[in-house]
Design goal:
The protein is about 30% helix and about 20% strand. The chain has 15 helices and 22 strands. Helix 14 runs antiparallel to helix 15. It is globular and about 70 Å long.
Amino acid sequence: MQLGLAGMLLPWGFSAKADTPYRGGRLIIGQFPEATLMTSGISTEGIAQQVSSKIFDGLLAYDVNLNPVPQLATAWNVSSDQLRISLTLRPGVRWHDGKPFTSADVAFSTLELWKKFHSRGRSTFANVVAVDTPDPLTVVFRLSKPAPYLLSALGSSESQVLPRHLYEGTNILLNPYNLAPVGTGPFRFVEWKRGEYIALKRNPDYWDQPKPYLDEIIFRVLPDPAAQSIALETGEIHLSVSLPPSDIDRLSKVPTLTVDTPAARSFLYNGLAFNLDKPIFQDVRVRRAIAHALDINFILQKIYYGYGLVGTGPLPPRFKPFYTPDVPGYPYNLARANELLDEVGLKPDGNGVRISAVLRPQPGGETSLRQAEYIRTSLRQIGIALDVQWDDFGGFIRRIYTERDFDVTTYLGQAGPDPAIGTQRIYWSKNFKPGVAFSNVAHYSNPKVDQLLEEAQVETNSERRLGLYNQFQRLVQTDLPLIPLVAAETIPLRNRRLIGYNSGADGILENFSSAQLLPE
C-alpha cells in the first residue's frame, strides 16, 4: 500500500502537509547490472534510462493515464493533415553548463542522434524528413507520412535531447559526454566510480523551482542479490528494481518496506532470440521444436515467482488494446519437439546430441541465470546441447549487436508505449544494423511483416491500425524469429521513507524532481 503525507502522522515521527514537501536527503538506489553509458539519447539500455532520466528532462512527460503533459515543451499541435507537429519550448531552460536549451538542440538530436543511432528512434522518427526551427523556442517536425504515435515517444527515457554544442562535429558514439553527461534535468552528474556508484546532485538552477527536493541521488552498484536485499532491509539503500522475484515476497513483509505497482508505460517482454544468420536456425521447424520444448508456465511460476504473464506473441498481454491472443501457439510438448527435429533430419549422435549451440543470455542477475539454466536443461531433452556463456553488460552488447557472436540469446525489452516505438524495431528488416543495440537482433526479414509494420506506422484510423497489428502478431508468431517467454514486470521495492518518485506513468524512469526522502 502506498503512503501519503496529507493529514497523517507518519510512523517515523514526522508529520507534514501535502503543500509543505520535505527538502534534503541523499536517496540511494540499488542497481545491477551497471550502466555502460549515461544517456539514452543513443541507446535503449534500461540501466542508462534509469540514471539519465534524472539528468535530462524530456520534451514531454506522461500522466498515470498515459496522456502527454508539459516538460521541456509547454504546448504542442498536430496539423490537420498530420504531417506537421509543432512544439513550443519552455523559456529560460539551461543546460547544466549554463548554455541555453533551444530548438536547435531538438533538431540536432532528432536528425543526428535518434534517427541514426537509437534502435527505436530509427523507426519512431523514420517519417520525420526535416525539423524546422523558426525561432529558439519553436520546433516543427515535418513528416513524409503521419506518425500517430510520435507524441507518445517524446519522454526523457525514450527520446532524450542532447546538447548540440557538445555533440555536433564529434564521434557521437565515442563522445566523452556519453559518460559524463550535461543535461537539463533536476539533477547534475557528479561522478561515476566504476563498479561502485554513480553520484548526482541537486540542480540549483532547475526550471521547476523549488524542485527538486532531494539533495543527492546515488546509484549504488550491488551485483550480489543477497547484499542488495540486506542493504534494502537495513536502510542502506532506499529503492531497488533489480532484486530477484524470490526476494520480493519476503522483503514486502518488512515493516519499513513496500512494493509499488509496475509503471503504467512498462510493457516488458522476455524472449529467446535466434541468430537467423546461422543455417541451423533458418528452418522454422527447428525454432518451433525449441518452442515446444520450453514450459513457459514453469518459467513464470518457478523463476519469476508469478510476477508477470505467459508470453504468447510479440506483444505482452498487458499491452492493450494492441495485444491479441489469436496467434499460433506452441504448447509444451517434448514428443512434438522431437518429431519436428526428426522431420528436419537432425539425428542424435552417439551422445544423443542433434545440435550444439552457444546461448549468450542478457545479464540480469539471479533470474537471468536461472532462466538460462532452465533453457539449457530443457533443450538437452530433445538433443540440443547449449553452451551457456556469460558476459558483463558491455560485453553482451558488443558480442550480440556488433560482433553477432551468438547462436541464441535471451532478450528483455520494452514493447511500448506504442508498437511502432517499442516493438517494430525488433522485427522490421530495415532496423537490422550491426552496432545498434536492442535492434533487430535475429536479423529477421519478412517483406509482408515489413509492409504491415510500415502501414500501421502511418495509419490514423485506430480500427484499421489494430487490424494491421493483429495480422503482424499472427505472422510473426508463425515465423517465430523470437520465442516469447514471460511478459515480465519490473517490481519497485522501496523504503517507506521514499515518497513521490512515481507521480506519472514511467515509475523508476521518472525524473524524481518530486521525490522526497522523509527523515527517520
